[in-house]
Specification:
Structural class: alpha/beta
Strand order of the largest sheet: 8-11-9-10-12
CATH class: Alpha Beta
Order of helices and strands: EEEHEHHHEHHEEHEEEEHHEEHH
Strand content: 15-25%
Distance between the termini: 59 Å
CATH topology: Spore Coat Polysaccharide Biosynthesis Protein SpsA, Chain A
Helix content: 25-40%
Bound molecules: uridine 5'-triphosphate
Radius of gyration: 20 Å
Number of strands: 13
CATH architecture: Alpha-Beta Complex
Shape: globular
Largest sheet: 5 strands, mixed, barrel
Number of domains: 1
CATH superfamily: Spore Coat Polysaccharide Biosynthesis Protein SpsA, Chain A
Length: 297
């Protein structure tokens, strides 16, 4: 039986160039889907999966993230004195128990693998999750919870995977599939950002991982890989060569790539349409838009 996973790393030190100029001063993870920042979705998913220690790998200009998870006593007092209990309740999810959240710096954006490696001392010799907040997954059972339940049976390493069109493989890490057993696939290799004609499959890895500490040892010796960055994919693939199994988990849910503008807009619409307080207005707007070709006034 695999050890319990209680720690998660959130690598958020990237430059977020696809959202410039906004990300010049606003961290990408603070951008909101309806009224909750991307990072809140990731934290809620982690909590549901039993994570109790949250490690953020940050960089310059990300202080809004630290403030977001801090108590805002003035605001809380103000809401309390006005009897706005529902809003106070909304803030609860943003508060962290003292000591549950840690921030460490990645001084230079050397790649996702390097960002994860920066958290090595806080992980020690335990399995851990890695969550990329710009991948938002709508699911009845949160994706990380699905994965941890599967990981408890398999051990090794587990990465979330989904089929992508073959012309998109160069945006992802891609699995070389060994055994394919229902929702779990055993990988015999992994390649970062292969060209479509070189991709071993169309099963792409997306931003949820449950990894063993051996991946951190591999990162100790990591060399730069695709795009001149230190790749997490390469460190996981090295485990396969060392006899540690790597499984792809075909999660149940819909993933939105909120690191891209189009994915972010799609998620905004999908999450708004899922809300009782917004659905009717937005539906009406969309219907008018399609009917007339122009926005309703
Ligand atoms: P992306 O590839 O989406 O890069 O990183 P990015 O910098 O966030 O965005 P673009 O492509 O410039 O628009 C995937 C995840 O890995 C983190 C990012 O913060 C994001 O969560 N990352 C990437 C780091 O923490 N450090 C790095 O050096 C690179």
């Amino acid at each position: 039986m695999a050890r319990k996973v209680t720690k998660a790393i959130f690598p958020v030190a990237g430059l977020g160039t696809r959202f410039l100029p906004a990300t010049k001063s606003v961290p990408k993870e603070i951008m909101t889907l309806v009224d909750r920042p991307l990072v809140q979705y990731a934290i809620d998913e982690a909590r549901a999966a039993g994570i109790t220690e949250f490690i953020f790998v940050t960089s310059r200009g990300k202080s809004a993230l630290e403030d977001y998870f801090d108590h805002n006593l003035v605001l809380e007092q103000e809401l309390k004195s006005k009897g706005k209990d529902d809003l106070l309740e909304t803030l609860n999810a943003t508060n962290m128990e003292s000591g549950a959240i840690a921030y460490i710096r990645q001084h230079k954006a050397l790649g996702l693998g390097h960002a994860v490696w920066c958290a090595r001392r806080l992980i020690g010799d335990e399995p851990f999750a890695v969550m990329l907040p710009d991948d938002v997954i709508a699911a009845d059972k949160p994706c990380l919870q699905q994965m941890i339940e599967a990981y408890e049976e398999t051990g090794g390493n587990m990465v979330a995977t989904m089929e992508v069109p073959s012309n998109k493989t160069s945006s992802y890490g891609v699995l070389d599939v060994g055994e394919n057993v229902g929702t779990v696939v055993r990988a015999k290799g992994m390649v970062e950002k292969p060209k479509p004609d070189e991709a071993p499959s169309n099963l792409a890895v997306i931003g949820r991982y449950v990894l063993g500490p051996s991946v951190l040892y591999n990162l100790n010796q990591a060399k730069t890989g695709s795009g001149g960055e230190i790749q997490l994919t390469d460190a996981i693939a090295e485990d396969i060569c060392n006899g540690v199994p790597v499984f792809g988990y075909k999660f149940d849910g819909q993933r939105f790539d909120c690191g891209s503008k189009s994915g972010f807009l799609q998620a905004t619409v999908a999450f708004a349409l899922a809300r009782d307080d917004l659905r009717d207005d937005l539906n009406q707007y969309l219907q008018d838009l399609y009917a007339t070709g122009q926005a309703a006034q």
